[in-house]
Amino acid sequence: MAVLCVSVAPAFAQGGFNEWGYNYTAHLFNGWYGQWGEWKAHHGVWPGEHWSGATWDSWIVMKWSKDWIPEADEPVGAWVTNHWYWYSDDYDEATWYGFTTRVEWTDKDVAPEAAYFMTEFLKVQSVGDDLEAWTEYQAGGAYDAGWGSHASGVPRYVVFQDVISVYDATTGELVATFNLCTTPPHGLGQPIF
User: Which of 29, 64, 171, 183 lies most in the core, judged by the most C-beta atoms within 10 Å?
Assistant: First the structure.
């Protein structure tokens, strides 16, 4: 299998990637999950005990809309995508498709010995306080991102696209795909807002 090579630009003049993996001008994060978690802990977004779950053995690339301000209360319609990469020896649903059975991976340019290479792509969007709309989103396969709710109970953020792909780490062949938001009427990848 071709080894995942996700370049991280060095920190340079304004507009480039900073030491945490953020490029605010380009609306991008490109780095280890642990690097992202370390930023959150450093800036007081996550307390230290919460951050302990962010590991250095999965890579994440995030892209967000111009109105999405990381770690703020985003306006309705703002969105962020997350593209995760990791290696695992299983992809059982009981272990979040192998996410809790990751194989140690410390050099993004070198694949570790593992049975599977995993990717997950998801899109999260800020939604308004509209119970009827939320009912429709749920019918379309969307689910609560778990980042707070409006007073009515409608979630503030909804995941409406979530795809996990599993590849044989040796051959690179696709082994399985899990489309977690495919229920009509909206379907995978279709805007629901």
Answer: 29
Q: What's the Cα-to-Cα distance from 20 to each of 10, 41, 47, 168, rounded to whole Å?
A: 10, 11, 17, 31
| CB of 142 closer than 8 Å to CB of 193 | no
Residue in this structure with the two tokens 């009515």, named with its chain if needed: 152
Number of independent structural domains in the chain: 1
Three-class SS of residue 93?
Answer: helix
pLDDT for position 184: 47
Cα 33 from chain centroid (whole Å): 9
Answer whether 0.85 is exceeded by the pTM: no
The residue ranges of the chain whose pLDDT is under 50 are 1-13, 46-52, 184-193
Distances (CA, A) of 189 to 3, 12, 21, 121, 162: 27, 35, 27, 11, 9
Q: Select from 49, 74, 44, 41 the least CA-distant residue to 147.
A: 74
Peptide bond into 185 cis (omega under 30): yes
Give pLDDT, residue 193: 35
CA–CA dist 157, 36 (Å, integer): 20
Is 191 within the bounds of a domain? no
Residue 28: which domain range?
22-179
Whether residue 9 lies inside any domain: the answer is: no
- Going by C-alpha positions, the residue among 156, 113, 110, 108 that lies closest to residue 133 is 156
Q: What pLDDT does residue 162 have? A: 85
Closest residue by Cα to residue 87 from 168, 176, 185:
168
